[in-house]
Amino acid sequence: MTVPPLRLPQARRISWPFLPPEMRSAIEGHCGSPVVSEEACELGFTPGFAALLTCANGSQHFVKAASAKAQRGSAMSYRAEIAVLRCLHPDVPAPGLLWSIDSDWVALSTQYAGGRAPALPWRAAELDACLDALESAAALLTPSPVAAGPVEDEFAAWPSYWTAVLPRPHLDDAAALAAGFAGHCAGETLVHGDVRADNLLILDTADGTRAEVLDWTWPAEGADWLDTVTLLALARAQGASGVDELLATRALTRDVPAEAIDSWLALLAGYFLKSSDDPVPPAAPHLRGHQRVAGEAFWDWLAARRDWL
Fold this sequence. Notes:
Blueprint: H1 21-31, E1 35-40, E2 49-55, E3 60-67, H2 72-87, E4 97-102, E5 105-110, H3 124-140, H4 151-154, H5 171-179, H6 181-185, E6 189-191, E7 200-205, E8 208-213, E9 220-222, H7 226-236, H8 243-249, H9 258-275, H10 287-305
Antiparallel strand pairs: 1-2, 2-3, 3-5, 4-5, 6-9, 7-8
Helix pairs in contact: 3-7, 5-9, 7-9, 7-10, 9-10
Organism: Nocardioides jejuensis
Protein name: Aminoglycoside phosphotransferase domain-containing protein
C-alpha cells in the first residue's frame, strides 16, 4: 500500500502575552531579565506554552508551561519530563533541566543550544546521528535512573485495541503478535516512548552532525531497542532509505529476534490506528490525522516484514 506522507505536526499553542502576569514574572525571575521577544515552537501537539524567549540582557531561554487546571494533560506530561530530566546522566544526549516551577502552572526550562528539526525526507547522516543518540542514551539509562512504569504494565491494554480497528487482511495475525509483546519488550532501560522527528534536534558542529532527544514526557522501562525500532518505522514513512539494513546492523537491533520486532510494530500499529478514530481534542486538531498516518506507517513495515502485502 501507499502510506500517506508523515509530516511534522503543528501545535496550537498559547503565546507569552497570554500567560498569567504572575507566571510571566516567575519565569522572568528565573531568566534573570525581562522577556523582550518570543519565538514559538510550532511543532508538536500539546496546547501548552513552548517558546524560545529572548531577554533584555540578550540571554535566550527555552521554556515550556501549562496550566495545571486548564491544560491538565500538558501539565502532567511536563511534570513527568521534569522528573526524568532531574535524573538523567549529564552525558545523555538531551537538553539538561535548568529550572522548574510547579504550582497553578507547571513550567520548565532546558538548556538551549540552537539546532533544528531533522530534514524531511530523512537524510542518511541525520538519521545516523539520531540512532547514535538513542544508542548513547540507552547505554546510560540502563538500568533506568527513574522509577517509571514497565512497558508491560503501561501498555497492557494496547493489544485489545485491535478489536476496535476496521477489518483488514491479517488483522487477527497482528493482534496475536501484539498480545505477546510483554514477553519480548520488557527490560530495564528508560525508554523515551515518543521518538519521532519533531522530538529530535539536529546540531551541526565542527565535529560533525549530532542529535539530542527532546520531550521526555512518556517514559517507561523496557527493552533498550524499542525507541530505535519506533524511529526507524516512522523514518521509513518519511522517506528514509535502507531502513531494513539499519535494523540489521545497528547495535541495539541487530541481535533482536524478528518476532520481537514485529510484536512491537503490531502493538504500535494497533494503538495508533485505534486512537486515530477517537474524538478530536479541540486543542490538538491535527492529532488524529497524525495518528492515522503513523498507524499505517507501523502497519506497512510490519506487513512488508511478514509478507502480508
